[in-house]
What we know:
The chain has a single domain (14-157), classed as 3-Layer(aba) Sandwich (Aminopeptidase), CATH 3.40.630. The chain has five helices and six strands; from the N terminus they run E-E-H-H-H-E-E-E-H-E-H. 34% of the residues lie in helices and 18% in strands. A hairpin with an 8-residue loop joins strand 4 and strand 5 (107-113).
Amino acid sequence: MRLIPLEHPIPPGIEHDRFRLRILTVDDLIKDYEAVMSSADRLRERFPYWGWPDPGMTIKDDLIDLGWHQKEAMLRRSFNYAVMAPDESRLLGCVYVDPPDKQGADADVFLWVRSDEEGSDLEEALEREVRRWLDAEWPFETVRWPGRDLSWEDWDRLPDA
């Protein structure tokens, strides 16, 4: 099932002085793998129900994931955006706009920044800009932010979609 209708354009992303947000593709493999694996412990802590990334994740596993995410975006089922340095030299994190697993929202949104950005204000700036972007460019009435506006425990107790 599509998350957004065919007649609604896929939002291209955000241009910001600190980052560029754009659709994640298989071309981002090396930068994505490095960002994910260097932040693996933080990601497993941030997304406790995902079990991701697997400690043994290989670059081939990541390529498969990226290909899947790219195809899902083409089919309008879910959208993964790379948070890139403005010059594209480094992947700084990701933003996920997904169909809800639980009832009560049009979409669930998740984001993360790499461990070595922790303590900077990048994550706060990213979240602020993504919230504006979702309001301005996406066709959702209700967006849920598990792990941010709603605890993971409260999210888990919601009825399945």
